[in-house]
Structure formats: C-alpha cells, structure tokens
Amino acid sequence: MKISVIGTGYVGLVSGVCFAEIGNDVTCIDIDKAKIERLEAGQVPIYEPGLESLLQENRQRGRLHFTTDTQAGIADSDVIFLALPTPPGADGAADLSAVLSVADQLSNLLGDHFTVVVNKSTVPVGTADKVRERINANHPDNFAVVSNPEFLREGVAVRDFMEPDRVVIGTNSPKAEAVMRELYAPLTDELHPILVMDEYSSELSKYAGNAFLATKISFINEIANVADRVGANVEAVARAIGADPRIGSRFLQAGIGYGGSCFPKDVQALAKTAESYDYDFKIIRAVLEANKAQRHVFIDTILGHFNGDLRGKRIALWGLAFKPDTDDIREAPALTIIDGLLEHGATVVAHDPEAMENVARVYADSSKAPQMTSEPMLALESADALVIATEWKVFRNADLSAIYQQLRHPIIFDGRNIYDPTAARSLGFTYYSVGRP
Ligand code: NAD
Question: Which CATH superfamily is domain 2-197 in?
Fold first, then answer.
C-alpha cells in the first residue's frame, strides 16, 4: 500500500520504518526540517535499538521517503497515519492542537480516491469524531477516520511493532476495516490478534492500558513504603504476589516512580476525561498522587542521611532517561531528583549512556545545572554518594568494588533496586534502596 505518516517522532518513525519493512511504500512527514534532513541522510534522530539498520535497508529498497511537504507526502496515499504529539494542556487534558491542525490541512489536501486517516496518537474519546468533522469541512466524501492506538514501548519499539500483543482498530466503516486488516495482516495472527471495535472503545483502551500499568507501578511502590516501615522486603512480596497469574510478575519493580512521555500525561488526561463527564475516578487520582510522592520519598531518604543539608556535597547520579534503552527524558524521575539535590545545595555530576544531550538542553538556561561526564566512573570521582535513577544494564553490571574505590564516601542511594543489599553492605557501603531492609 501507499502510506504516509504525519509526525515522525518515536511512534511515527518506528511505524513508518516497520510498515516499509513489511513491503509498503511509506512517506514520513514532519514539520521539523532538521529532523527530516537527518533522516534523509540515513541518520536516526532518536535512540531506538534496531531502528537505524531497518531505516537504511528500506531507504535502499526505495520504500521509505521523508519530506516536510505534507501535500506531496500524502499524494495518492491509501492510508495516512497521524502520529502527532498530544501533550498535556494547561488543565491536564490532552492538547489536540497538532492533530486538529493537521486534520484541517487534510481537509484541503485529500485527493479523490478513498483514503483512511488513522489516529495513532493517544487521544481522548471523541477525537476521531473531531478529526472527521474537520476533514469534512472541505472534503465531504471518500475518506474514513479510524482509531488505531499504538502500544509500542520505547527501547523495544521495533519488536513491539513487528510482533504486537494486539492491534486495536476502532472503526464503524467496513471499508476502512478491510483496508486496516489488509495492512496489518503480515503482523497479526492468533497470537498477535487484530481487535476491531467501535472508535470510542478503541480510544479509551489506550488510556485504560496505560492507567492500569501506572496503577500497578504505584501499587508496588506503596507496598515498598509499607515494607520499609514494617521491615519486609518488597522484592520478596512482589515475587510472592507475581506468581499469581491473576496478578502477573511484570511491572512490580518498586522504585522512584514512573515517568516518560506517556504514563504521566495519559493518566492525567484520563482523569480529566472522567472529570469532564462528572465522574470522580478515585483510583487514578490516587495513582497521580502516589507517583508524585514517590520521587520525594527518595529525595527525603537522601536528605535524611545528610541531615537535610547538601551544601558542599558532590553527588554522582547514574541514569537520566526515564527508563533504560531510550534517550527520552520527558517526565523522567531523574530530573526531579536532580532539582531536589541542587535546591538543597549539592553539586550533581551525572552520567547516562544516551540521554545527556537532551538533559543539557533542558538546563541550558538554568543558573543551577548538573555537570555531566562521558564515562560513568568519572562521575564518581570525589563524590560523597552515588544515586541510581535509571536501571541501565551498564549500571546493573558495574563492579561494586570499583565504585567503592572511586567514591569519596561509599554511600549508594539505589532508586531502582539494582544492587544486592547484602553484597553492597559486605563491601562496606552504606546502602539505601526502595522497600528492602
Ligand atoms: P514525538 O514528539 O516524538 O513526535 C511527534 C512528531 O510530530 C515530532 O517529530 C514533531 O516535530 C511532529 N509534528 C508536530 N506537529 C506537526 C505537524 N503539524 N505536522 C507534522 N509533524 C508535526 O511524539 P511521540 O512520542 O512519537 O508520540 C506521538 C503520539 O503517540 C502521542 O500521542 C503519544 O502519546 C503517542 N504514543 C507514544 C508512545 C511512545 O512510546 N513515545 C507510545 C504509544 C503512543
């Protein structure tokens, strides 16, 4: 099929490359000129394992194109994906301005043949209706708007896209359904089903999924806080409850809370949707509160050790990305921790394998900013403690004796529970983690 993807970010680029990989002719469109130039040169502007080689292969096959020209990019497309940002607006609800402005553009640009416009962005219930209305203004016929929420995870996005747990399609149009089934046929089977439903259920399912996962994380963090008080070990508890298939063992790692470009904004947007229908979604409110608090629980542990005064202290911090295997720092817990440490007078020296450039950009105009080092061990030089904020494998596999040698004071605040407390203490570390005695 001839496909275009409008919005070439984490979701749009992975989708575009993968649709090309399974044999479609794909044009990725973006308003960011610099991004498109890099992509045309065969470079991937984000860190996503496996993406660059697929991109280059499909460029060579002539199946993958990049442009900033929407009109040229969508010409003759059978399917147009919208993979546009939907950040939180001032009131916490999803800001649909990018999605709706592109819908207005499409209203003037769509051609005569049947086109399926697919919303891949995470959008509140009713957005397909709004997009349809906007397109309808100048282009009343021969198109359908479909909801197709994306469930990929950054860091394993290519695999998630190529082997989806499920593909959700929301549409009431049999013609559009047939196109979507054909498009996804190479990626779906009994184990990777395509689930067709009405648009509203499809739109809501993305928020419900993320809100449920966020709840699971916040739940185990709350158990960790109880474990800390009663002298239990949250990891043992997680193993015990995770063995129950009704609960499942994944997403039961206690830590400093969730971040990223999706959970925080999607949980908030779901709360807002409920509110706008006069429904008080009590669990979601609690999740938002618990997640926010968890970062401060950790900062308080650090402050508690230093009697509330970090002036003159040099703190090494490993991990800036909101999770491993990505350079994404949107809503990363590390940033809240850095701010907390700086605010209390500490010098922060950080390292992350992929996210340092993005963090440098965030602090470019700040009077207080973390320093960064090219090597993780360099961050430890003369440091009074090491803080772990992201569980990258390279940190997990680090040699604890070498860390001990390098630090000025052998103290670890492990916000991701990556080290064995007994091993750390037997080496002489003062070791704090989350929910483990
Ligand atoms: P992103 O910020 O990485 O990418 C969005 C891209 O759209 C950017 O490159 C931006 O320049 C471009 N853009 C903005 N306005 C445009 C316009 N008018 N015309 C053309 N391009 C435009 O965002 P993302 O992480 O890919 O997320 C996109 C959507 O997918 C969001 O709704 C998000 O919630 C959802 N989602 C994201 C993930 C994830 O892991 N990142 C997973 C599932 C769903």
Answer: NAD(P)-binding Rossmann-like Domain (3.40.50.720)
